[in-house]
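User: Can you help me understand a structure? I only have the sequence.
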Amino acid sequence: MEPEPTSTCWKCSHEVDLSVKVTRYDNCPSCDADLRVCMNCRFWDRSYHNECRENVAHYIRDREKANFCTSFEFKRAVATERNEADDARAKLEAMFKKRD
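Assistant: Let's start by predicting it. Here is the structure, written out as tokens:
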């Protein structure tokens, strides 16, 4: 059985319950950061023009503040994907760790 995709806060990685639609006024229960932001959207990508993979999206000045973007879709990740990223980060930190 494949793991269920989950969604997390862009700022603190707290798991977010998406059983109800995320609105512009919703905040993370852990760190109080806005949830309907570019940083939580599946289309957000710094390497793209306008930092968005959605061609019709309007320019959003502050990617960390709630907005009214009509293309917003909450980003989902499978737990194994997050674990692989965490493992890679730990290996890099260990590689560059200061040795006594």
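Now, to help you interpret it: The first strand starts at residue 7 and ends at 8. The chain has a mean pLDDT of 83. Let me know which part you'd like to focus on.
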